[in-house]
Design goal:
Strands 5, 6, 7, 8, 9, 10, 12, 13, 15, 16, 19 and 20 form a 12-stranded antiparallel β-sheet that branches. This protein has an 8-stranded antiparallel β-sheet with strand order 1-2-3-4-11-18-17-14, with no helix packed on it. By secondary structure, the chain is mostly beta strands. The protein starts with 22 loop residues before the first strand and ends with a strand. Helix 4 runs parallel beside helix 5. It is built from 11 helices and 35 strands. The longest helix has 17 residues.
């Protein structure tokens, strides 16, 4: 059997470390314990303790497949244990330097007909992961489902979205864990005694995504996206020798501890791209927000936003404001009004967009051209053109593409989060890597740490982003204080923050050209101006957008923060906060630090020690804060900008208005 374990470095391996069941494993610091056992019927089980108390009570393991029993009838053939403690770096990320410290146990099982299955466990100080490695005595394995359970010992307060196999663009629900019917992951839970946990998955390749289904009380079982929505459709068709993604549980005594965890990344393989010098985080602006506001279109009418003239103006604006890239949605031919999904040739420009002129001007100004490929979910059509269109982009010096899959699913009724979808999105990333192209994917599969292995997969959507504020009641104030503790635990999000005209005062009287959205809805952004600034820090993305119309930034004093801000950070830390209530984050880029804190609909004061700064140095702190009378409903534009000289020994106190925020740039004094 091919052992797919990646415990190949810095290992202390002890063959047959435990000859009897139950077999036990603990975290390096000893406070998390895991036990593996078999029932009398040979069915694998596991349980978890935290600080000596039951956390996950005895829960089932295994898979359901045609023609092979991967559920019971097993006996143990070997148990191997190992310890890992290594440092590793990545070309970009919240933290470029990371530590992987865990204890591991691989339980080798043999079942009926000679089937072999390893269950591999890794336990970290901040959680655990497990996965299956199967070698079946047949050429193909048809997987129908998964038996993995998470039977939590106690109830808790949870934050999750519904278990939808096609979309993550739902509002988060706050409810007792026992009342959650189903959930996409990450699902985050606060238990008693200040214990926090989040269930997710890591390293999805050639396998469907997982959601959780409630099977009674606080017990959940994994459910896999099917290959189609037809009754009886299988979930995956695999070779006889395969591995599953990791099922993960992050555990922390604080909410921000979940944010600071590298567990998901540590369960992914090292980078497979030899030369990563071309992979560069950046700030960007673009032709985008006007379409969601309804004053511009993607093409096919006189209100087209991505014209040659507009492109040149945005390039000039980026060059003048320390912004590295410009996104052009709707530059392609074949858009037919705001509603229609295009039938693209992904290398053909609209008649009013001179692609050669724009590309040449962008190169002259040193600005990255970010292309846009909207597929409408038609994967076969896109894959037919994929190599040719990426070759064309590479020849034109384009190294960044935003992909889109708008609609209810993939063509033919295939669920977006199915094995078919997972394979497609991985194909796009690998084809792009071969041509030095970075990917920003919308309407895609969830983030599971693949960015460590394929760092050109920079960012993705996978949640309700800014656009919902343009044509619906929008995202509620607490949305931005839930995302860091849920969705962003999997990886960066292209939320596209930065609207300065939060009440759309500057488009009053302009013609609405769209026919979609929610008619009669009073739209606006449900935050203060300063919260929009702080979200550039809080909502992490290595491709970070200032999404508003260019004219709303021109001459605005508060836009200086984005000019100073660096998307390419070296280290990050969530400092304080509670799920759904507030959060404070700092990111370091070279010698500069950027701080952001935001709150839900409740105004609050934050006392922030500055001990994250380098000791012995002085810093010029420029503070962008809500004014004393600010509130997201009545006075969203009220803000102040102040400057102070500070050191690591100082403490600052900030007042955050309702749905407000504060952003601070700390620039070292020479």
């Amino acid at each position: 059997m091919k052992r797919l374990s990646s415990l190949l470095v810095c290992l202390l391996t002890l063959a047959a470390c435990q000859s009897k069941l139950p077999a036990t494993l603990s975290s390096p610091d000893g406070h998390i314990g895991l036990t593996f056992s078999l029932t009398d019927e040979g069915a694998p089980r596991y349980a978890v303790t935290v600080n000596g108390k039951p956390f996950i009570v005895t829960s089932a393991l295994g898979l359901e497949a045609d023609g092979v029993n991967l559920t019971d009838g097993f006996h143990v053939t070997n148990i191997e244990c190992a310890s890992v403690d290594e440092a590793w770096t990545q070309p970009w990320g919240e933290n470029k330097e990371n530590r992987d410290c865990h204890n591991a146990m691989t339980v080798s099982l043999e079942g009926e007909g000679g089937v072999q299955m390893d269950v591999e466990f890794r336990v970290f100080d901040d959680g655990l992961g497990f996965r299956y490695l199967v070698d079946a005595p047949q050429d193909t394995v048809v997987v129908r489902g998964e038996k993995s359970e998470f039977r939590f010992a106690a109830d808790g307060e949870s934050w999750s979205i519904p278990g939808d196999f096609n979309s993550y663009e739902h509002l988060y629900r706050r409810m007792p864990l026992s009342e959650v019917p189903d959930a996409n992951t990450p699902i985050t839970v606060k238990f008693a005694d200040d214990l926090y946990a989040s269930v997710h998955e890591a390293a999805i390749y050639d396998y469907p995504e997982m959601v959780l289904r409630n099977i009674g009380g606080t017990a959940f079982q994994s459910a896999l996206a099917p290959l189609s929505m037809q009754p009886g459709a299988p979930c995956a068709i695999l070779d006889e020798d395969f591995s599953t993604p990791w099922r993960t549980v992050q555990i922390s005594p604080s909410a921000v501890g979940l944010v600071n965890s590298a567990l998901i990344l540590n369960l992914n393989e090292p980078c497979k791209i030899a030369d990563v010098s071309w992979i560069k985080p950046m700030k960007y602006v673009g032709v985008w927000w006007g379409m969601h506001l309804g004053i511009e279109s993607w093409g096919g009418d006189p209100y087209h936003g991505a014209t040659t003239e507009a492109a040149l103006r945005y390039i000039d604006f980026a060059a003048a404001n320390n912004i590295q890239g410009v996104l052009f949605e709707g530059w392609n031919d074949a858009w037919r009004g705001s509603e229609a999904l295009p039938d693209f040739d992904f290398t053909k420009a609209a008649q009013d967009f001179d692609i050669e002129k724009v590309l040449s001007y962008a190169r002259e100004k040193g600005i990255a051209f970010i292309s846009h490929n909207e597929t409408g979910g038609n994967v076969p059509r896109y894959e037919d053109q994929l190599e040719r269109s990426f070759d064309w982009l590479e020849a034109g010096g384009v190294h960044a593409v935003k992909t889109g899959y708008a609609g209810g699913g993939l063509v033919g009724g295939i669920p977006r989060h199915s094995q078919f979808g997972v394979r497609h999105f991985q194909k796009v990333v690998e084809e792009a890597a071969g041509r030095e192209i970075m990917i920003d994917a919308h309407e895609t599969i969830k983030a599971t740490g693949i960015r460590r292995t394929w760092p050109n997969f920079m960012t993705r959507e996978c949640a309700r982003g800014m656009e919902y504020n343009g044509w619906s009641a929008g995202n509620p104030p607490s949305h931005h204080e839930i995302l860091p503790y849920t969705r962003l635990l999997g990886g960066p999000m292209d939320y596209t923050p930065g609207v300065f005209d939060v009440q759309y005062r500057n488009i009053a009287g302009k013609k609405q050209v769209r026919t979609w959205g929610q008619p009669g809805t009073e739209c606006r952004v449900n935050t203060t101006l300063c919260k929009q600034i702080a979200n550039w820090v809080v909502l992490y993305s290595p491709l970070q957008m200032a999404c508003d119309l260019m004219e709303n930034y021109q001459g605005h004093p508060a836009f200086q923060f984005f000019r100073d801000f660096e998307a390419d950070c070296d280290a990050s830390k969530a400092l304080q906060g509670e799920v759904g209530e507030w959060i404070a984050v700092v990111r370091r880029a070279g010698g500069k630090y950027f701080y952001g804190a935001t709150t839900d609909e409740c105004a609050r004061d934050i006392v922030q020690p500055l001990d994250f700064l380098e000791e012995g140095r002085g810093y010029e702190a420029v503070i962008y804060a809500d004014a004393p009378d600010a509130s997201w409903k009545k006075a969203p534009y009220a803000y102040t900008i102040t400057q102070k000289t500070v050191t690591a020994a100082d403490t600052l106190t900030f007042h955050l208005a309702s749905s407000g925020g504060v952003a601070v740039s700390f620039i070292p004094i020479p």
